[in-house]
Each structure stands twice: as structure tokens, then as C-alpha cells.
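Sat 14:20. Reprocessing the chain from the morning session after the first attempt stalled halfway. Input below, unchanged.
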Amino acid sequence: MISAILVDDEVLTVKALKKIIESRCININIVGEAHDGLEALELVEKLKPDFAIIDIRMPNMDGIELMEKITERSIKTKVIVLSAYRDFEYASKALQYGAWGYLVKPVDKGKLLDMISKVEAGVQYDTHISQLKDKVNESIPLIKEKYLKQLVNGTIAYSSIREEDKSLLGIEDKNCRLIIISPGSYLNNNDIAVKLVEIAESLIKEVTKGIVFLNRQNEFIGIYNCPADPHSAGLPVNIRNALNTLLSTDVTIALSSPGFSMNDICLAYREAKIALVYKFYMGLNSVIAYNDVSHIQFEINQTLFEDENHLIEQIRMGISDEAIRILDEMFENLQAKMNMSPEMVYNCCYKIILFLVKALKDTSLGSDIKEQLTGLELDDLKSCGTLKELAVFLKLTVENITELVDKSRKTEDMKVIVKAKLYCTQNYPKDITLDLISEHVNMARNYFCAFFKKKSGENFWDYLTDLRINRAKELLETTDLKIAAIAEKVGYKNASHFCRIFKEAVGVSPSEYKGKIC
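Finished this time. C-alpha cells:
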């Protein structure tokens, strides 16, 4: 429907116009009436009708002044002017202000309907043009994203893009740098992803020309012209810090070397991808430049340690300290050299898991616990995104297994303790209830805690708390995760409750503990 208002100080004229329009113009909706210029201006501002029929001469504000006010306010209302013969000069002036025409009183019904028909066609045309513009504006981001994805993946040359499309990208073809923004957790919320792009792009545009877009799941790419201002060198760090606040999680940023043309931006993407691989060694929340790691070469056919049999024997005997020493030495060597690809490290660590299965084959440890170890897959190890996380996972597994082996050899009752502890080790981030743990070890819930205390010498809840707090300390020492994120990772949904438990156990708050490390 097309909306309209009628403005005339003569009430009978308004009624006559309304009667004609309502009886003959089915697409017109009269949304308001006014009898002077001021009243009409209020209606126009409030309703913003598609058109108005306005008398030239009215009290308080005449039709010409009313049209001036409508034009000043950039309101798109179209105007048909009513005029007596003696007001012809006023009508001419109204046409200069954009009136669609004028009608002489008394209004001829046929001329009125013809004029309304023209205005109606004009409104429909404007609506069509507006819709076309909206569609064009909606398609621009998609066109930009399509070109950018093709450029970074090397499926199109920048030189083959039309000049008018190049201007859409908003970046100059000189001294370009590419960054990959890699959030530490998957962004399933599209609104958050859009906000990430907006924040990163706004920070870039504060210092230079650039653009940010989503290339594939959880991989955001920024391309910008390297600014001459030396203070802008901290741009990637500023982006990382801002996104840490937005996402409450780690964000790793990998940088290509500077100085690329847009024709070679796919090479810059490859450099940034190579730099991103070193997140495994440098840790989450790092800013990694290709130039800082390009000299490192991954070696082929490397082994993590020389004496596999020695490690197996320590595990079979339940000697935790020596087994952990071997693993510590292995991971320290890896961290120092960074000479093995993450894929190879994962594979070698998976071999250690297989060694554990082999080591436990002939022990008295329960078959169900052996099955839990056997059930560990390579993907379980790959869920550890960094070398430090992998080391913690593997050492914790070995430490618990060697401890369990040692205790299981002493008494059959310890099988229950072993099973309970292994369950805790693998599920401490979850909500472990007395019902769950009792059911897992096939024991009455009223008896389990007393049994655990008697056989292991420690309170079950104290054991679980210590396990979680020790893991929290490791995360505080090795990551930049927020306190709330660490709390959730170690099984506490409430950060305040976690902080209270941590302080009771360690003597200081998590923030104070983090501060002492730094």
C-alpha cells in the first residue's frame, strides 16, 4: 500500500479528496489529515508518507514553507499542490521545490486521479530502485569475499580482476602483508564471527588500508598495506589482545613477511600457514612471524627417545619418577630444537600409548582399564593443540598408569581405586558426581567414599580437587587463558567457586599465582 496525507485548511476539501481517493484508488491508504502547515509538518515527520496533497495557502505555515521544511529534513514524501487561480505564482514556485504537479480548485476529479496515478508510479519506481540498491549493497561483501578467497588460494590473479571490482577490496596493490587469525576454540556463533571481523578490520583501518574475512572454518584472514609508521608494528598484537577480550579465549596470529603485491598474495598466505604450524611449539595466543621461523627445518625419520624398552620397563614396574624423567627429557629436547613436525610428534606419542598397552598386557591391572587405554585414538592426542598440552596429557597418563600399576600389584582391592582415578584423570573437566563414579566402579555410593579413603589413604574429593588444582596450575603456567576459561577446563563452572578452592589449596588466588610466575 502507498501511504498519503491530505492537508488543507478547508475541511470540506479534505473530505472530498478523501472520498474520491478511497473510492477509486485501492492501493492508496490515507494515513493522516491536517488543516494547517505546522500540523502537516508534524504528520510528515512522524509518518513519512509516500505522498501528500497540500494546499498552497494555509494558516501558521503555507504550502511553500512546508515543502521547504520537508526538503531540509531529507524526507522523500512526494507533493501534489492545490492552488486557486490567483495563486499561480505560488504553484510555479512549488514546482521548483520538487512538487509533482498542481491542481486548481475546485479540483477536477479526472485530473486528480491522473496526478495520483503518476505519483503512484513514481513511488513504485523509487521502491524498485531502492530494492535494487539494497541487493547490490548486499552482494558487495559476497563479491569481495569471493575474490579474496580466490586470491589467497591462488585460483585467480589480481591482474585479471576488473578495476571497478578492485576498488571494492579497499586495499592498494603494494607492500601487502597477510595475517591468519586462529581462535583457540571453534566459533559456532555467526554473530561472534562477524564481530571478530569488524573489530580486527577496524583496528587495521585505524593505521592503514586493509580487509578481514572468513576464509574457512575458524580461519580468518587479514590483508593490509604495511604502514610506514613504526608504531604500527604492534598491530597484530593489538588485534590479538582485542579478540582475547571479545572471545574470552586464546587467539593465535600468524604473519607473512611484508612487501607482497596482491598478485602474489597466495604466497603470503602460504608463509602465514607455515608460521601457524609453529603454534604447536610456541603455544596458544602467540603472534608468530614467518621471518622468525623460516630458518627452522623439520627433520625426517626422527625418534622421540632412544631406549623405548627402558620406558616400558619403568611403566611395568610402576616406577613413575623415572618414566616421567624420560618423558621430560624428550619434551624438553623437542621444545629446544622444534625440528619435528607436529604430525610426527603426535604419531610418536601415539606409539608411546601403544607401548603402555603392551606394558600392561601381562600385569594384573583390570582388563577394563586396559581397554580404556586401548580406546585412546590418535585424534585424542591431536586435541592437544600445543606441545605443552601434549606433554601434560602424556605425562599425566603415564604418571597415573605407573601409579596404578604399582598399587594394583599390592592388592586386588586397588583395582577399584585404579579405575576411579583413571576415570577422574580422563573426565576431570566434567561434572563428576558420587553417583557417576560409584556406578563406574560398580559400588554402592554410600560405601564408595569410605572404601576409597581406606584403600588409598586419601579422601576421594580431596584427590579430585588436587587433580583439578594441579591441572589448573599447569594451565596458569603454560597458557594465557582467562581464569574463567581455566576454571571450566578443570571442571568448575563457577569461576568464583574455583578461585576460592584454588586459594584454599595453594594459599594464593589464581591471579596471584599467575603473577608470581610472570
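The two ends are 67 Å apart (CA to CA).
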